[in-house]
Structures are given as structure tokens and as C-alpha cells.
Specification:
alpha+beta; Signal recognition particle alu RNA binding heterodimer, srp9/1; 2,3-Dihydroxybiphenyl 1,2-Dioxygenase, domain 1; 3 domains; four-stranded mixed beta sheet; 11 strands; 34% helix; globular
């Protein structure tokens, strides 16, 4: 018995491989209950009494397993249902200065949208920088630039010591040089011109 996907990939189902190439597919919960008696009857007609009893017992056990599995997976991961963190936006009173800092740090060219917004496509998420003045017009009193003391921007790198040597001439405020953390990674911490804390880390080798 193995789990496969239907031809249109629309929903999972289970296939029972039986003697004489007799095969039945259970598609969903309704199909399981609607076709259960017919399935057991057909199987019984094609097998010996002993084999028939074993197959019927196996089908009942598998039926319960499949129903439980369908119940657990009734709400699969879905971007419509589950919020996904896509952008991290830094509100700054000097967008140009912050962009000029992050371009060499990230080895990426910022993508601008007008004069108040720029973003870096990091490959996993987006680091965005937005003007404090524009944010104030949009939602008055909602943010205050260069006051963050609770969020860390974490970037995974390969070759932390090499990155440390490369960034020495680019970063003015160092918080911690490359150090092994209690959770097993190696990290270095520094601040951008607005005081946001940045962590470059590498996984254990």
C-alpha cells in the first residue's frame, strides 16, 4: 500500500494493491463512506474466504486511517488562509542614506519606486525602506524613525569571517564580532545608520 497523487494533482488518495491486479482508489471522505460496502463486496467475491476476511479487516482499518488523515489535513497550508511574512519595512528619515548603506552590505542594488520607497530582493524576503514623511502622511503618528530597539534583521551568510573582514570598512557601529551563540550558530552583530540591529550568521559546519 502506498500513497500517490491523482492525475490532476487536486487531492491526495490512497490505492490498495490486491491480488489479480484488482485495484481500488479512495478519493475523499464522501467517496470512502459511499463506496465502502461496494468495495468490500467486490473484493470478497474475488478472493478465498480467509483472504477475503483479511482484506475486509485491512480495508476497515485503512478506512479509519484515511478518514483521520483527511480530517487532520482538512486545512492545508494555503496563502489565502495563512499570513505569510514577505516584507520587512524600515521607516527612515533618510531613505537615501540607508539605501547607500545596505547596497554594499547586501551586495544588492536597491529597486526604487518613486523617491520615498526602495527595496532589496534578498531571495527569501524583501527588505524595504520607506520615508518617514510619506508614512506620516499615510498614517499619522504610526511610526518613529531610528527608534527601533526590539527587532533584529537576521541574514544567513556563508563564510562569516570573510564577511566580517569585508564589512569592517563599511560598518561604523559594531555590537559583537563573530561569536559562537548558545544555540549553535556563529553570529556577528552591527547597527545600520538608523540604529537597527543587524545579525549576520552562519550555520554550524
Amino acid at each position: 500500500m502506498r500513497q500517490v497523487l491523482s492525475r490532476n494533482q487536486s487531492r491526495p488518495f490512497r490505492e490498495f494493491f490486491l491480488p489479480n491486479n484488482f485495484r481500488i482508489a479512495l478519493v475523499d471522505r464522501n467517496s470512502l463512506f459511499r463506496n465502502r460496502n461496494t468495495m468490500i463486496s467486490k473484493i470478497s467475491q474475488r478472493l478465498t474466504p480467509t483472504a477475503s476476511a483479511l482484506v475486509v479487516l485491512s480495508a476497515i482499518i485503512s478506512l479509519g486511517w484515511a478518514v483521520n488523515r483527511l480530517s487532520i489535513n482538512n486545512n492545508p497550508s494555503n496563502p489565502v488562509l495563512n499570513p505569510r511574512l514577505v516584507n520587512t519595512c524600515l521607516v527612515s528619515d533618510n531613505v537615501g542614506r540607508l539605501v547607500s548603506f545596505y547596497e554594499p552590505i547586501l551586495r544588492l542594488k536597491a529597486r526604487w519606486s518613486g523617491e520615498f520607497y526602495a527595496e532589496f530582493q534578498t531571495g527569501v524576503g524583501v527588505l524595504a525602506i520607506f520615508s518617514e514623511k510619506a508614512q506620516e502622511k499615510y498614517i499619522p503618528g504610526s511610526t518613529e524613525a531610528a527608534k527601533n530597539k526590539s527587532i533584529i534583521l537576521e541574514f544567513r551568510v556563508f563564510g562569516l569571517d570573510q564577511e566580517y573582514s569585508r564589512l569592517k570598512g563599511l560598518v561604523n557601529t559594531w555590537v559583537k564580532p563573530p561569536t559562537k551563540t548558545p544555540w549553535g550558530t556563529r553570529s556577528m552583530y552591527f547597527r545600520d545608520p538608523d540604529g537597527n540591529l543587524v545579525d549576520y550568521y552562519e550555520l554550524p559546519k
